[in-house]
């Protein structure tokens, strides 16, 4: 008798619900791990904001196959240990279908084994080549790799007839990865690394290292790191009156670097995605309209300028949204869809993933820029 009454009550409740509620499909939970605060917030803050904006936009358009998206985002503060705590929450507590981020190479490498064991798709927004090389079945990334970045820098150096360089790299996995590429690729471009130095991510002075580089008489210096260290290097180069070209990595491709380095940023050359020079691109560039639309949306919502780092999250969300279509929330189907994604034009470049390449970008994802008058100038 009690069972019959319970059934009647349940039926009565269901009859009161609207057809929309009755037909609603389960929410697709997707995770995010970004350095939203802390020293790497210039990376993570625009990534977090972009992910939230994109999820909102996708839901307003009806979601994915009728499934609304729910973004569950944690702040790693740029700390690998906090990234590990976040990934465990996303896997075991939140039970997300995929994760976007983290923002940095060290925090990404800290969680790779966790997502691999959980067989959970990860789309990192960090650059280190070790993230996707060798290929890991469940790990992808949208940031251009340092392998391509070093080649772009060296092509420019070679074109200037420079033969001897000094390098200074941050002492973490991003800097080590860059250093490895700088040393490995130098002979291919006829370059000799006459002095290699490193600096700590929190160092406030690098004059000792730069003095050693100066004594080796290089014709140019290449710095590899993310803010604020590279800005310190730029200021120290100016203080030491090192009148030779200073190159930086794509790890400083944001207005924050110019803000931190001040006048010392003038004349610095670096590789970057096209997002920093959208207005200078030719009208027939396949990325231009995508970049313009992203910038309009971001600036309207957040009243701030976009960066290439936000672009990494923009691409990651769009790639994941495509992969979710027709998956019915099956992680294996999502992974396979990502791995077969081809000719996807995004903010960072054209992605062509494969079983052999989980970054999927070509050298054309980079342009070279010079900082002039406090802004970016495209080098033709």
Structure description:
Helix 4 packs parallel to helix 5 (105-118). Strands 2-1-3-4-5 form a five-stranded parallel beta sheet, sandwiched between helices. A four-stranded parallel beta sheet has the order 7-6-8-9, with helices on both faces. The chain has a three-stranded antiparallel beta sheet with strand order 10-13-14. It folds into two domains: 23-143 and 287-361, Rossmann fold (3-Layer(aba) Sandwich); 147-272, Rossmann fold (3-Layer(aba) Sandwich), CATH 3.40.50.2300. The protein is of the alpha/beta class and 380 residues long. The chain contains 13 helices and 14 strands.
Report the CATH superfamily of the largest domain. Response regulator
Strand content: 15-25%
Structural Rg: 23 Å
Number of helices: 13
Distance between the termini: 82 Å
How would a textbook summarize the main sheet? 5 strands, parallel
Which regions are unreliable across 5 or more consecutive residues at pLDDT < 50? 6-15, 17-22
CATH class of the largest domain: Alpha Beta
Structural class: alpha/beta
Count all strands and give the number: 14
Counting structural domains, the number is 2
Classify the fold: give the CATH topology of the largest domain. Rossmann fold
Helix proportion of residues, in percent? 40-55%
Mean pLDDT: 93
Q: Sketch the topology as an H/E string, one letter per element.
A: HHEHEHEHEEHEHEHEHEHEHHHEEEE
The general outline is globular
Which strand order does the major sheet show?
2-1-3-4-5
Question: So, CATH architecture of the largest domain?
Answer: 3-Layer(aba) Sandwich
Domain Leucine-binding protein: 28-373
Protein name: Amino acid/amide ABC transporter substrate-binding protein, HAAT family
Organism: Desulfocicer vacuolatum DSM 3385
Pfam families: Peripla_BP_6
């Amino acid at each position: 008798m009690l069972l019959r009454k319970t059934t009647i009550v349940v039926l009565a409740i269901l009859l009161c619900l609207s057809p929309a509620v009755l037909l609603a499909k389960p929410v697709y939970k997707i995770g995010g791990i970004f350095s939203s605060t802390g020293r790497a917030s210039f990376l993570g803050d625009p990534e977090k904001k972009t992910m939230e904006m994109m999820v909102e936009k996708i839901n307003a358009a009806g979601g994915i196959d009728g499934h609304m998206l729910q973004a569950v985002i944690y702040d790693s503060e740029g700390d690998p240990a906090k990234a590990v705590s976040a990934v465990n929450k996303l896997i075991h507590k939140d039970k997300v279908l995929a994760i976007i981020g983290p923002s940095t190479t060290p925090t990404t490498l800290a969680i790779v084994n966790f997502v691999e064991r959980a067989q959970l798709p990860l789309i990192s927004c960090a650059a280190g080549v070790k993230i996707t090389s060798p290929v890991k079945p469940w790990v992808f990334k949208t940031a251009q790799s340092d392998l391509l970045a070093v080649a772009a820098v060296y092509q420019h150096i070679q074109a200037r007839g420079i033969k001897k360089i000094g390098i200074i790299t941050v002492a973490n996995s991003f800097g080590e990865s860059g250093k490895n590429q700088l040393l490995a690729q130098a002979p291919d471009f006829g370059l000799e690394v006459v002095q290699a130095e490193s600096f700590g991510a929190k160092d406030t002075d690098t004059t000792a290292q730069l003095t050693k580089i100066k004594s080796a008489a290089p014709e140019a210096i290449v710095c590899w790191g993310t803010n604020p260290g590279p800005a310190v290097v730029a200021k120290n180069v100016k203080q030491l009156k090192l009148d030779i070209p200073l190159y930086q990595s794509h790890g400083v491709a944001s207005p924050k670097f110019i803000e931190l380095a001040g006048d010392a940023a003038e004349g610095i050359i670096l590789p970057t995605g096209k997002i920093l020079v959208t207005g200078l691109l030719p009208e027939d560039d396949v990325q231009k309209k995508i970049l313009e639309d992203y910038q309009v949306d971001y600036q309207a919502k957040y009243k701030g300028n976009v960066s290439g780092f936000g672009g990494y999250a923009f691409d990651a969300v769009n790639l994941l949204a495509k992969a979710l279509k027709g998956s019915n929330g099956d992680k294996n189907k999502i992974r396979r869809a990502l791995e077969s994604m081809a000719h996807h034009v995004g903010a960072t470049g054209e992605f062509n993933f494969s079983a052999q390449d989980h970054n999927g970008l070509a050298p054309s994802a980079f342009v070279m820029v010079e900082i002039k008058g406090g802004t970016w100038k495209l080098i033709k």
